[in-house]
Amino acid sequence: MTITVRPASAVEDVRTLVGPKSPTATVCWCLSHRVPAKLDKELRGPARGAYVAELCRREPAPGVLAYEGDEPVGWAAVAPRSETAYARSRTIPHLDDLPVWSLWCVRVRPGHRKQGISHALIAGAVDFARAHGAPAVEAYPVDNGDARVDVTMAYVGMRRNFERAGFVHAADTTSVLAGHPRVLMRLDLR
Fold first, then answer.
1. Does residue 106 sit in helix, strand or coil?
2. How far apart are the C-alpha atoms of 53 and 18, rounded to whole Å?
3. Which residues does residue 184 pair with via DSSP β-bridges, in sequence order?
4. Where are the alpha helices (DSSP H) in the chain?
5. What's the first-to-final CA gap in the chain, in angstroms?
6. Which element (helix H / strand E) includes 181?
């Protein structure tokens, strides 16, 4: 199995990974941390997909996609923190004024999990951020130890996967997801 990671510029492939099943849905498309809460609530149904389609046409793309051959099998959202809800978060601290990028969602399609795709996505997201001048990348995974995390809540990633990719624990947060504390992990690219 060969996995390649590319910029998320193909909206149909992004739809495959994070598009909702219902065309009238008011969730996902991986927008809740990308846009202000008011806009997130206003974007309903097809408007959410149209917004993401516009993001896919921009440079840089809204994240990266992992492919097995031509099949999209994974997604990672990565962008400058200043362009995300993390810029205004009350639960995720800011360490300094460095213009870091945030990596906040790692999703692997069912049937493709436990094959190392999340590791490829993290590495690909870091490479993407580096190529766009990021001095550092931050992630906000759960610190679950050996405890199981519900797959629907695992999108933020797990601390050990980021440690494996070279990220270091930079701060604790007051955010909790699925009963597990989240930590701020950082990878310095300078």
1. strand
2. 12
3. 171
4. 11-18, 37-42, 46-57, 117-131, 159-164
5. 32
6. strand 180-188
